[in-house]
Amino acid sequence: MTAVHIEEPPAPPDAPRNRGTRLLKRLHVLRVATLRRVGGRVLTVLAALVVFVALVIPRELAMITPWALLRIPVEAIVGVVLVLALPRRLRSWVAGACGAVLGVVLILKALDVGFLSVLGRPFDPVLDWVLLDNAREFLHGSFGPTGAIGATVAAVLLAVLAVALMALAARRLSRVVGRYRSGATRAAAVLSVVWLAAFALSLQIVEPVPVASRSAAALVYEKAKQVPVSLRDEREFAAQAASDSLAPAAVAAQEEMLAGLRGKDVLLTFIESYGRNAVEDPRYAPQVDATLQAGMARLAAGGYAARSGWLTSPVSGGSSWLAHATLVSGLRIDNQQRYRSLVSSDRLTLSKAFQSSGWETANVMPGTDRAWPEAAYFGFDRVHDGPGLGYQGLDFAWSPMPDQYALAQFQHREHGRTDRGPLMAQLELTSSHVPWWPYPKLVDWDAIGDGSIFRAQVEGGEPPEKIWKNDDRMRQAYRDSTVYSLETVLSYVERYGDDRLVMVFLGDHQPASIITGENPSHDVPITIVTRDRAVLDRIADWRWAEGLKPGPQTPVWPMDAFRDRFMSAFGAAPTPR
Questions:
Q1: Which string of b and e fits 7-21 if b means at least 16 CB within 10 Å?
Q2: Where are the transmembrane segments (predicted)?
Q3: Distance (Å, whole) CA 52 – CA 104
Q4: Closest by alpha carbon to 236, among 335, 324, 159, 152?
Q5: Number of domains the chain is built from
Q6: Is the pLDDT of residue 197 over 90?
């Protein structure tokens, strides 16, 4: 049989090209799969990292260091156990909800970082939301509208992203735990043993941060516990405000309430952030104390004498108006809810007592640029706010005008008038307000005019944000701005004081912790200056130090004790206390 040979048809000319295309497609698929696998692992690592950091990061700024992150969060162990115990169809949803809660916890930690750093206390989830608007106003005054808007938008976006990203990260991790159940179970068991051992031994890599972390759960518990306390405080405070032994109805003769100051001009002057650290901390005290000593020497040459003591402010780092309300009301006002309750009550304030006893009353508020309806409650006949003072210079960061200009306007509008009776005024000075830069310099009182002279002190200077990048320069700015405010008050007394003047000046609160360090006292100096020795004789039993600076052994009172002690000392028949 003859073999038949069949020839295969020749390959088409593009066959090599097809094989090459298929190879490229396979390589592309392989590359995409590899990228997805690597990308998935990277996303998983990032998800684990952000959840871990959110769980363990401290809420105290000074403790946020790489070493402080070397902790074992018990919440992560509980989360793994929960995912393993849940049915598969519920894992992702429960994990997402827990992640969203963790995002809220991260926001609360961030708020606590800010509040602890500036105000020296944690954020109150019931009472403190109103202070966020004050923070926006501070940014507006310090860095301009663009900076304030940018910071506000960034804060809102970060808050939304924190909740969303934590929810997505937790869902991704729940899928990984479900996929590797045996490995996740062993890891949870080992970490549980290590956590318990670290907890029992109180292990710390860096003090005071424990290795066995439960900070997220503790924060949630703390904030939840604070809610009913804050809500209950409103009722308790209302009862305190209503019980007032000095209420007008309980005073037999209102004209005798302040008989010891009859005919005097009483100026109650708050110096922003003038705290105990300013006169005792070696970083500030040499310059501040030298200012006080030189000022006392000049005042003594003019016939003045002074006594100084300590008051414990209810606030630290900010919220000056709460301290002002505390001093004049005789009640501790340490949150906005108490402030609102106070101004809705019939509680007698110092300014109201002066007004009821025949004094003209005025308030100078250079840092206020909006209506202040509380003036009627506090007992002020006239209020001079920032816009009403007519300043034509440039702002000094948050402070809208120098203290010297505000006092010059007070002299022109109130104290220097010849057609008035005795005057009681509350003056709220702002030049030593954070960010403390730029700060003004004293000029000749006769050259102040409309304030244009101060323009040259601001133009061409460094912006506050540059100073804030250097802690030492920021502390120096605090020191120098405080010295300026004190020099201005003392210079005012020298220039415009007379035999009728009784100047009471004090700090409203300590500055932020970047200035004071951690856990400072809330004490502030208070001083009474006058030429009339009979006025100071009435407070002899207070045991205040002679001069413009209280001593280490000078008595310390709560700021809310001042109203009653002052009214008692200067009433018709002073009561020893």
A1: eeeeeeeeeeeeeee
A2: 38-58, 64-86, 93-119, 148-168, 188-206
A3: 15
A4: 335
A5: 2
A6: no
